[in-house]
Amino acid sequence: MIARADDAATRAQKLHAEAIVVDTHLDAPDQLSTRWADVSSRGATDHFDIPRARQGGLTAPFFSIYVAASYADHGAARRALDLIDLTHRVVDGHAKDMMLAVSPADIRAAKRTGKIAVLMGIEGGHAIEDSLGVLREMYRAGVRYMTLTHTNTNHWADSSGPFYEPDFDPKKSAVHNGLTDFGKTVVKEMNRIGMIVDISHVSDATIRDVLAVSRAPVMASHSSCRALSSMPRNLTDEQIKQIAAKGGVVMINVGSGFLDARLKATYAKDPARLRKEMQELLKHQERPQRAVWTEVVDHIEHVIKVGGEDAVGIGDDFDGIEDPPTGFEDVSMYPKLTEELLRRGHSEAQVKKVLGENFLAFFARVEAVRDKLASEPPATAVYKEK
Ligand SMILES: [Zn+2]
User: Fold this and answer.
1) In the CATH hierarchy, which fold is given to the domain comprising 2-372?
2) Residue 285: is its pLDDT beyond 80?
3) Cα separation, 93 vs 97, whole angstroms
4) CA 213 / ligand 1 centre spacing (Å)
5) Taking residues 351-364, what's their average pLDDT?
6) CA angle (361, 366, 371) in 5-degree steps
7) Position 103 pLDDT exceeds 90
8) How far apart are CA 333 and CA 177, in angstroms?
9) How far apart are CA 316 and CA 318, in angstroms?
10) Which of 106, 130, 158, 317 is flagged as catalytic?
11) In sequence order, what are the residues at sequence separation of 6 or more whose Cβ sits closer than 8 angstroms to the Cβ of residue 17?
């Protein structure tokens, strides 16, 4: 028996070392912007640094260009540019370990040369300040996805709202009932230039509209399954099916609240207590209510069951969540997913898909749509204040 267990561990180790590991949401830039640190030293941010990324076999993290809702009325594009600059400085400062990547080919090249491929995704569509020109400039600066909203509804897309508020109802705060006409133009222009459309954080009505108008497959960069943890930030089975049917991917968020709704169930009739317990959960590492790391694999398997084995990947939300599950606390932990997936009987090819190949194939499909639309002229729509 011991020999067999050793075999499994060795098999997992070998597989993980060969695999391309993609994580589509890492909030290190926001942390580094307030607490600058050398990412080659351990503990640079809560959940990320080069030594832990190496330990975890991480090939390609997307650095989040996170523009908080507080910038919505002033300085949103500037905030995005500051974090893009910060990302370039981090990569340039560690050229032996890191390279900036903007394509699936770059990610594969990084793997071959033993580097960490750093990509960028904007979180919060207000970052483009309602300008298609700014959107295109962000792409030219190297950004490859944009989450259409953060917790705030912007001028052209409804958000699913502040997920950390236990009794928040996105339907009640809907402003546009999905995407406005300008929002639909933003999505179509993203398709044309090859910017991945990210539907994490948006409302159900916005997801519906995006799926209807997007000419390319779409991604949820850091969302989990509503069937396993009921919150507006997670995806319904129907949404997972539709995203998968369009060739898109669902990248699993590991925040405890995203993985299970134990707290919500326990304090369903006491919203004040629920709020207090949710805040406590964020403050203390060892809360018993914290999710257990194997629940990450439950969510991965749920997407496979509902949307198929090509539709799932990892978008941890590390450095953006304060409540990672017990046993999966930072970017050094990815090998545990490989072991657990193998242990549950998934094939080596399936495990590689989850770790990165699904995202790479999806990214290539987005590029193919961009190439097909190459002769289409740039959109010239201008946002008009109502
Ligand atoms: Zn987020």
Assistant:
1) TIM Barrel (3.20.20)
2) no
3) 9
4) 23
5) 98
6) 120
7) yes
8) 39
9) 5
10) 317
11) 57
Separation between Cα atoms, residue 228 and residue 261, nearest integer Å: 8
Percentage of residues in the chain having pLDDT higher than 70: 96
8 Å CB contact between 173 and 112:
no
Report the sign of the C-alpha dihedral through residues 68, 70, 74, 79, in that order: negative
pLDDT number for residue 283:
67
CA of 317 to the centre of ligand 1 (A): 7
| Residue 194 DSSP SS3 | coil
Catalytic residue among 16, 25, 47, 155: 25
Distance of CA 163 from the midpoint of ligand 1 (Å): 10
169 is catalytic: no
What is the Cα–Cα distance from 67 to 145, expressed in whole angstroms? 14
Buried b (16+ CB within 10 A) or exposed e, 187-204: bbbbbbbbbbbbbbbbbb
State residue 112's pLDDT score: 98
What residue type is 225 in one-letter code?
A: C
Higher confidence at residue 149 or residue 270? 149
DSSP string covering 9-44: HHHHHHHHHHS--EEEEE-HHHHHHHS---TTSTTS
For 221-274, how does the pLDDT look when each residue is reduced to its tens digit (9 = 90+)? 999 999 999 999 999 999 999 999 999 999 999 999 899 887 777 777 787 888
Domain ranges of the chain: 2-372
- pTM value? 0.95
Q: Give me 117's structure tokens.
A: 């491929």
Identity of the residue numbered 1: M
Distance CA 318, CA 252 (A): 11
Rounded Cα–Cα distance for residues 150 and 335 (Å): 30
**Average pLDDT, rounded, for the chain:** 94
Q: pLDDT confidence of 167, banded at 50, 70, 90?
A: confident
